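Hello,

Our lab assistant flagged a job as stuck in the queue for most of the afternoon. It eventually completed. Since we weren't sure the result was trustworthy after the delay, we are filing this so someone can double-check. Below is the sequence as submitted and the structure that was eventually returned. Let us know if re-running is recommended.
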Amino acid sequence: MQTTHIDHIRPVDQSVLDLLRQSSGLTVQELTDKLDVTPTAVRQRLERLVEAELIERRKESASRGRPQYRYALTALGMRYASVSYADLASALWQEVMDLPNRQQRTNILRRVAKRMATSLKSGVPQAASLEDRLTAMVEELGKRKVPAAVRQSGLLPVLEVYACPYPGLTDDDESRRLCELEQDMLSEAIGQSVQLDCCRLDGHSHCNFRPLGELPELMATSTDKT
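-- returned structure --
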């Protein structure tokens, strides 16, 4: 299974993220003092977090001596380190599901799927092959703490997702509208319609998203099609 840089984040790294949430940036020495560990240990944690794109290093001009670097959270790091929005998501989802007009619910969910796909789409090379796009999607999902992998199914690659992005919501979603939302979101982000073939809610070990379309078309890159 392909792993992402975030998979290598350790529990001890969370303390660095928590400190950076409370400031506009900290140096290695400041982190060393606050964490009461060695500078080497701090640098190792920072290296993992920089590689995972959760923090960034900013160079500061110094009046004398060597330049100093300050570390701060990236936008991704801010989302990763922040508190959960589960209660808000649950309330908003229930309000949408309670709308009396079915077509209105459908239209809203389609717009939500498209909007959610926008951030994922930025990391997926749309002109690449289907397999490369799915591989890029694995990386993007990993940044959101959703483990996934690309597997071959016959001649085609498929996307396997090993954890539900919305565990608190799907438990009570008998309509499976959240599953449809994820399917639409992935289709939009990948640039290819996918179908949910098996689901964790049915007792499977993962959710399986299979690309739809004619085989020659799916095997070609977007460049080949033009």
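-- support follow-up --
The delay was a queue issue, not a problem with the job. The result is valid. The chain has two domains: 5-81, 86-225. Confidence is low (pLDDT under 50) at residues 222-226.
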